[in-house]
Amino acid sequence: MRPRIVLFGDSITEQSFRSGGWGAALADTYTRKADIVNRGYGGYNTRWALFLLHHLFPLDSTKPPAAATVFFGANDAAILGRTSERQYVPLEEYKENLRKIVFHLKECCPTMLVVLIPPPPVDEAGRKEYAQSVYGEKAVELPERTNEVTRLYAEQCIELAKEMGLRSVDLWSKMQETEGWQRKFLSDGLHLTSEGNAVVHQEVVRVFNEAWLSAAEMPYDFPHHSEIDGKNPEKAFQHQCL
């Protein structure tokens, strides 16, 4: 049976199976080798994600995932007193919630490869333009998220990964290495363009390769067609199917 890789996160994960999405690209990378399972929940923060753990990752599962990405923080970093404050989670709680998620995943399967992904950077001008395009004159002047506040959450996520000996993808820093990242990688100041999705895919694959989950080194679930003898097809399937 193919191993499963679960993508657990907010809307940036939920949207990752769209055309050009990083999850869809990951599914292509692991074609016939692992099943990529999308468990992204738009608008969710780490506080709400805790309620899902026992449903998505039951402790009595006989076939838990081989790996999981945990990609939260964009909503936790919403600013109090502004339009998205309902999603706000204090910085210290955010880190502890991530810790609880990791503990649960490791209890589910001690050998599970867990990769933490902090939120991407925020383009405040892009968020304002998006709000104006949706709400017109009702759009508020102050952004509901800022890049500086998001940086604090990204740092806590990376710090936790180091504390727990986990692998991580510093998306907040990585994207800002490219000039013009605001328009190149973000579609509305927060969510990803196809180029932004490509960065996530590239970084996740890099981390998987550095661990023990390199697609190139994994076997196919069933024989490649070139290995099947047209006159004696049974021979190719004896090892995997009998």
Summarize the entry for a quick read.
Helices cover 43% and strands 10% of the residues. With 242 residues, the protein is α/β, with parallel strands linked by helices. It has a five-stranded parallel β-sheet with strand order 2-1-3-4-5, sandwiched between helices.
Structure description:
By secondary structure, the chain is of the alpha/beta class. Helix content is 43%, strand content 10%. It is built from eleven helices and five strands. A five-stranded parallel beta sheet has the order 2-1-3-4-5, sandwiched between helices. The protein is globular, with a radius of gyration of 20 Å. It starts with a strand and ends with a helix. The model has no long low-confidence stretch (mean pLDDT 93).
Give me the count of strands. 5
Give average pLDDT, whole number. 93
In angstroms, what is the radius of gyration? 20 Å
State the helicity in percent bands.
40-55%
> Which class best fits the helix and strand makeup?
alpha/beta
Major sheet: order of its strands? Answer: 2-1-3-4-5
Number of helices: 11
Shape: globular
Keywords:
242 residues, five-stranded parallel beta sheet, globular, alpha/beta
Helix-strand layout with pairing:
Elements: E1 4-9, H1 11-14, H2 22-29, E2 35-40, H3 46-49, H4 53-56, E3 67-71, H5 91-108, E4 113-117, H6 124-135, H7 147-164, E5 167-168, H8 171-175, H9 181-185, H10 194-210, H11 234-241
Parallel strand pairs: 1-2, 1-3, 3-4, 4-5
Helix pairs in contact: 2-10, 5-7
